[in-house]
């Protein structure tokens, strides 16, 4: 059975928040989360350190054999992802409902 963990940062994803996200991702990976969803619905802005933290999070989850997804990005984050080609790296869903529909339906034994 695959365990799903959801991380929901709030506000500006900058150096301070980046450290917190890296810590949270490391914690959920230690708890054997097979799928990690980072829901950015409450994030208003992402700077370079925040973007770096998302990349580190992706590497951390993949190194543990898991999968990382992102959902609920605003226009600024979408533009940042496109400018840095991160839209090619991350699998992004419109919101948690789309994630649930596509990922949970594909993994019916997930929690």
Description of the structure:
There is one protein chain. The protein has helices at residues 15-30, 48-63, 75-83, 96-106; strands at residues 3-7, 11-13, 33-39, 43-46, 67-71, 91-93. Strand 5, helix 3 (75-83) and strand 6 form a beta-alpha-beta unit. By secondary structure, the chain is an alpha/beta fold. It is globular and about 35 Å long. The chain is built from four helices and six strands, in the order E-E-H-E-E-H-E-H-E-H. 47% of the residues lie in helices and 24% in strands. The chain has a domain at 9-67 and 84-95: STAS domain (Transcription Regulator spoIIAA). The strands form two sheets. Strands 1-3-5-6 form a four-stranded parallel β-sheet. It has a two-stranded parallel sheet with strand order 2-4.
Topology:
Elements: E1 3-7, E2 11-13, H1 15-30, E3 33-39, E4 43-46, H2 48-63, E5 67-71, H3 75-83, E6 91-93, H4 96-106
Parallel strand pairs: 1-3, 2-4, 3-5, 5-6
Overview features:
alpha/beta, four-stranded parallel sheet, Transcription Regulator spoIIAA, 111 residues
CATH topology name of the domain at 9-67 and 84-95, in short, is Transcription Regulator spoIIAA
Gyration radius, rounded: 13 Å
**Beginning-to-end CA distance, first to last residue:** 8 Å
Shape: globular
**Secondary-structure arrangement, i.e. CATH architecture of the domain at 9-67 and 84-95:** 2-Layer Sandwich
Poorly predicted residue ranges: none
Total strand count, please? 6
CATH class of the domain at 9-67 and 84-95: Alpha Beta
Outline the biggest β-sheet: 4 strands, parallel
Strand order of the largest sheet: 1-3-5-6
Structural class: alpha/beta
Helix content: 40-55%
Overall residue-averaged pLDDT value = 92
How many helix segments? 4
Strand content: 15-25%
Order of helices and strands: EEHEEHEHEH
Q: What is the CATH superfamily label of the domain at 9-67 and 84-95?
A: STAS domain
């Amino acid at each position: 059975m695959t365990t799903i963990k959801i991380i929901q940062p709030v506000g500006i994803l900058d150096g301070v928040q980046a450290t917190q996200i890296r810590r949270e991702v490391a914690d959920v990976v230690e708890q054997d989360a097979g799928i990690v969803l980072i829901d950015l619905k409450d994030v208003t802005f992402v700077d370079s350190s925040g973007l770096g933290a998302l990349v580190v999070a992706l590497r951390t989850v993949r190194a543990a054999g898991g999968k990382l997804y992102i959902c609920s990005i605003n226009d600024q984050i979408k533009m940042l992802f496109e400018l840095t080609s991160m839209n090619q790296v991350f699998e992004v869903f419109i919101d948690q409902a789309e994630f649930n529909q596509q990922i949970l339906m594909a993994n019916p034994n997930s929690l």
